[in-house]
Structures are given as C-alpha cells and as structure tokens.
C-alpha cells in the first residue's frame, strides 16, 4: 500500500471516532513520553478507566511531576506514578526497566510513545548514537525486550493478553532506505554515523525512524510464537498539533503552521488512536496482533516494508539491533533466546 496525498487529506478530514474504553481495574499501564502531547492525553484517557497503576515515564522530574498533578486535577485519578527515563541514555533505560523487575508487579500495557521531531541536525548521545535513532529505534526496542518477561508472566498469572503499542506514523509510507544504507553490512551503524547524517539525509530522519518503528514491531511480532499471549501492534495517531515540530524554522515552520491550520487533529484526538491500539477488541485481542493501525482501523503497511528488499532489511536490522542491545544489556540476548522464535 502507498498513501496518496488525497488519501492523507481524507483521513485528516474524517469524522472523529469515540475513545475506546475498558475496565482497567487492577491492571498496570505504562506510557513513555507521558508528560506532554500525545502521551499525556493518552494517559488522561487511561486514568478515566481506573487502572490499578498508571506509570508516566518521563525524562524530566519537574515536567513529569507537573503532568502527574495536572492529570489528577483533570481526571480525579490520584494514583499516577512518575518514573524517570531518558531514552537518549541507555543507563537510564536500564535503571527504569530494573526498577520494574525489582518492583515485581504486573504489566498489562506499554505505550511506546517516543520520538525526536523532524528538522533536527546531527547530534550524538553519550552512548555515541545519533539522538533520534537511539531514542526511537534502540531504546524503544530495549524497553520492550527487557520488560517482555514481565508481560509474559502477567499473561500467565492473570489470564490476560498484555499489549505492546509502538507509536509510528503514516510518514513511513513516504520513505525508503537509500541504496548506501541497504548495501551496508551494518544498517543501524550507518544510519547513526556522523558521516551519513548530512543535512540532506537528516531532513528524512523522522520519516526513517518511523519506518524503523514499523520494521521493529513486525519483526518482534514475527518472533513471538502464535500461542504467545501478547499483542504487539503499531499505530499512527494522525497529523496532530504537536510539540515535536517545535524545532522547525523558516519556510518549514511556515508550511507546517499553515498545514496545521488546514488539517491537524487536536492532540487529544490523536491520542485516541494510541488508546485504540492498547484497548480495542478486548474480546478478540488477537485481531490486532502484528497489525498497523490508523484512524481506528487496521491498515496495510507501506509497499517498501512488504517488498523483498524491505523484508531483507527488516531481518538485517533486527539481528543488528539484538547484537547492539545485547552489548548494552546481556539480558537482551537471553530474553531473545528464551522467549522468541525464528520467524516463519
């Protein structure tokens, strides 16, 4: 499938769907990037469903605490917890997941809402990776993999089907990987190198990170045995008012401002898609297993993803990612070996 400009316009002008609801009593929900934007609005929706625990995973203490207090004021839910995690820092991610392991609690839903907006220039993290690539395509998978055993334990002990929701975007339809990247023996390393991250290539970086999000959720789903009681899906929130694009300037900022006025959803409306991916089809959760969701419906992913070239890249990136993350935390290799299978 390819998404035409006209189809994009039609989606943006479509009628808003109501928020999907469910009884979350006793369940634990984690939202990454929860202090602002889509993450905060989704957290507010979850809060109205009385979860046993609602964990707002945020990078900044003061902004995170302000979000917890605003959420309580807006919804009356007083049990939200602030947990700090900086996805641009592998040590912070490990501390976050270690805390969950030591906590010993259940984990029913994790919404992986993490990205660095378009218009960024090259900048490296303390771990030596280009920042947006580490945040969206290394740390996001690291969280999912390190918490996978807890979700499996939750499924068995509570006879439920936990969900991992990866927030992607329809912009993945409009990008591919360059020949230079596809022919590289180390795709992620090439994408993350300062040499590759020229001004020209960085203009496509946001699109590429969202494409890699699609590769990740599909690769993870393919490696979960069909009987594994976990749903992994990905979701596009639509084109929304967002702080992600605050770094845009000049002509890009002007075009974005005009496009927002004509087409953008409110952030709250966009967050309904995250909730849909996390809660829809409670009676038949397998309906959303391995699916890509947009406008509250399952959609086929982009042609490049489905092509032989894309499939080869997806497997290559998965293997490289596991190798990289296993060096960050050796538990990754053990979790992959114990809980995942070779794709069919």
UniProtKB/TrEMBL annotation:
<dbReference type="GO" id="GO:0016491">
    <property type="term" value="F:oxidoreductase activity"/>
</dbReference>
<dbReference type="InterPro" id="IPR036291">
    <property type="entry name" value="NAD(P)-bd_dom_sf"/>
</dbReference>
<protein>
    <recommendedName>
        <fullName>NAD(P)-binding protein</fullName>
    </recommendedName>
</protein>
<dbReference type="Pfam" id="PF00106">
    <property type="entry name" value="adh_short"/>
</dbReference>
<keyword id="KW-0560">Oxidoreductase</keyword>
<dbReference type="InterPro" id="IPR002347">
    <property type="entry name" value="SDR_fam"/>
</dbReference>
